[in-house]
Specification:
This protein is an alpha+beta fold. It has a single domain (3-196), classed as Glutaredoxin (3-Layer(aba) Sandwich). It contains nine helices and six strands; from the N terminus they run βαββααβαααααββα.
Amino acid sequence: MPIHIRIFSDFTCPFCYLGKGLVEALKKEYDIQEEWVSYELHPEVPPEGVLLSEKFPDYDLKGLFEELRTKGERYGYTFGDATLLPNTRKALEAGEFARDHGKHATFHAAVFHAYFGEGRNIGQVPVLLDIASQVGLDRDELERALNDDRYEDRLEAGHEEGDRYDVSVLPTFVFDGGDKIVGLRSIEAFRQVLKGLHHTPL
C-alpha cells in the first residue's frame, strides 16, 4: 500500500517547486502517492501583482535566485530572475480544473516552469489559458470555469484543511498518520519519516 502525502503549496513558492522535484526523486525509492493541496500564500496581492522588491524590500532576492538555480539543477529545473509576485488565485483555480480533467500533474509542472523558468505572469488569465492549451486542456471550458469562480469553494476548503494542520509555511507535507514536515528539508529527513511509518524502499 502506498503512503499518501498531502502537500500544501502555491505556485509562487520556489521551495514548493523544489519540493515537487524532491517528491519525484522519492517516488523512485518508495511507494508513495502525493496530492497537492491548493493553498494561496499571498491572497493580499492585487490582481495585477506586485514587484518582489516592493513586497520583500529587506530580502536578498539576487542571493535567493542564485541558491534556487543551484538547487534546481539536480531536478532539471530552471530558475530565471522573476521580478513580479503575481496573485495566484486564478492559477490555483485552474489547477483544480486540471485535476478534474486528469491533467493536474502536467499543468502543475507547466505553471511552475512558466513562472520560475520563463518569468511569465501566471496571475493573468490569458497566460493560464495558453498553458492549459499546451497540456491538452480545453481552453474555452477553463475560461468559463475561471469566469464562474467554479473552484472558489475548493480553494477555501484547502485553506480550512491547512488551518487544521496549522499550516503557516509552504510547502507543508502531511503524511498518513499525521506526521508533518514543514518547509523544504533534505531528502534524508523524508526518508526518516517514511522509515518511521514502516515503509521500506522499493
